[in-house]
């Protein structure tokens, strides 16, 4: 029987998208339940599968989104064993590179994935000769298109140095048979381009391919999916996103137009739309409508629709008073407006401004906690096996965590087997049982993890020396974690070394979120406070398409708010010489009756 739902679960637009046969191109405005629609669509298509050979493939932007959707599908009582859901990188590794790497000359002799920490370290070293030009690994972002390499760096004085650094970087990777995230896409694309059988096999497995957040998808990713789709007339494609929220332009992401998509895939599409915003008040919706580049339809219809929102814009506060002003706004929301701390988010464009803001706010408002970037005390590299084990080591067995921990255990055992370990009948339940039996009385987070891993290896009789990859992952995991803990301690967060702080990462968030604009993608909060809205930051000074990018960033920021929105262009931030940053031009141009706050 097909999976069914009630009227109060999906609105008519969402239901129509879920049950639509064939290929769907779905444009969804902010807060319109894109994730909900995608989840039901997956559940619906899974329930229609009649043979064990068919799979549903869903590609999400983050591992976290993949986990959430999978868990929701399982909670709905739908069998998810024929669902593969994950990021495009995981998909390429598991389904294209692992089975077909021998067809790729650069990979045929074997390859391994460079750890994120090692990658950063390598690039930092290669940048050293260009210290005077202030070239750092942050300048070394790049991406590939079918025509080859593109640099994210648009700074004329650095570009040549970055090119040399990257040439050395690729040489090093090749010599050591390493690949990074961008190379995963490149090689997957190359394999499909040169190997008809690979694309055909994949097309035979997946009856449905679903892509979330298409607006931030890169050309190579569209190409990879298109190779598969062109090999099968029986595979349906469902692609959803919001072109107004495309903020990864500098890394090669773009919202493909329908005509282009038709040409690439050779398919026809039902063009559909989700236009009902369940998130924000009418006032917030009318505000972010000012930045609606593609003129998509949006109608507020959630439970907070009639909320008397505050939408304010401050262009006067000085940089030196910023912390006090943000603290005042936070307190007002919590004390006067009864908004809970975890429903507040503080956003700035640049990561560098957030760590110090987080620290200063923690000192100013000691009664609240702040969850910010750079606050994670250990290496969160999802491809590192020891990170995967740490997820189990740092969470407690409980009914609520059971399914998730079982899945993590399974992933670890698959990794172990891929390393050549013979696990006989040792299954994921046994693995969890072994982990749960490890009891340690250790308060230092890093020592705890070291002891935990040692106990686990001993219990499973694993000889680390026999598995170089495991040893290498072990070394980089701890090197990177020690560096992070030291950095946090330097910034005044001494408790970061405590095991309780480590465990917090996996608990439900209770503190005030502090995030970059890019990091807040997909999230929603009752109150949003955004600062650093300055021309040169929003948009970035090197952005060739700056005004359009600023418009999209403002659209993303403002559409995260359910109830209240506070925008700040502080004065007094030095640019260079005697020059100061001024407010974001798109904000100055926006004609809106802000509230005095
Ligand atoms: N049919 C519905 N009825 C009531 N609430 C809904 C419905 N669909 C979605 N919602 C709620 O609307 C909110 C926004 O949904 P979701 O986060 O999926 O939006 P989104 O489209 O992904 O937004 P964005 O693109 O801005 O990230 C969520 O709180 C969700 O539970």
UniProtKB/TrEMBL annotation:
Annotated GO MF terms: 3'-5' DNA helicase activity; ATP binding; DNA binding; hydrolase activity
Database matches in InterPro entries: DExx_box_DNA_helicase_dom_sf, DNA_helicase_UvrD-like_C, DNA_helicase_UvrD/REP, P-loop_NTPase, UvrD-like_ATP-bd
Reaction(s) the record says it catalyses: Couples ATP hydrolysis with the unwinding of duplex DNA by translocating in the 3'-5' direction; ATP + H2O = ADP + phosphate + H(+)
Superkingdom of origin: Bacteria
Gene Ontology BP annotations: recombinational repair
SUPFAM superfamilies in alphabetical order: P-loop containing nucleoside triphosphate hydrolases
PROSITE patterns for the chain: UVRD_HELICASE_ATP_BIND
Record-annotated UvrD-like helicase ATP-binding domain positions: 7-281
Pfam families: UvrD-helicase, UvrD_C
Record bears the keyword DNA-binding: yes
Gene3D superfamilies hit by this protein: 1.10.10.160, P-loop containing nucleotide triphosphate hydrolases
Signal peptide stretch: none
Residue stretches in coiled coil: none
Binding-site residues for ATP, renumbered to this chain: 28-35
UniProt keyword annotations, A-Z: ATP-binding, DNA-binding, Helicase, Hydrolase, Isomerase, Nucleotide-binding
EC numbers, comma separated: 5.6.2.4
Protein family (similarity comment): Belongs to the helicase family. UvrD subfamily.
Protein's UniProt name: DNA 3'-5' helicase
Source organism of the structure: Duganella flavida
Organism classification: Bacteria, Pseudomonadati, Pseudomonadota, Betaproteobacteria, Burkholderiales
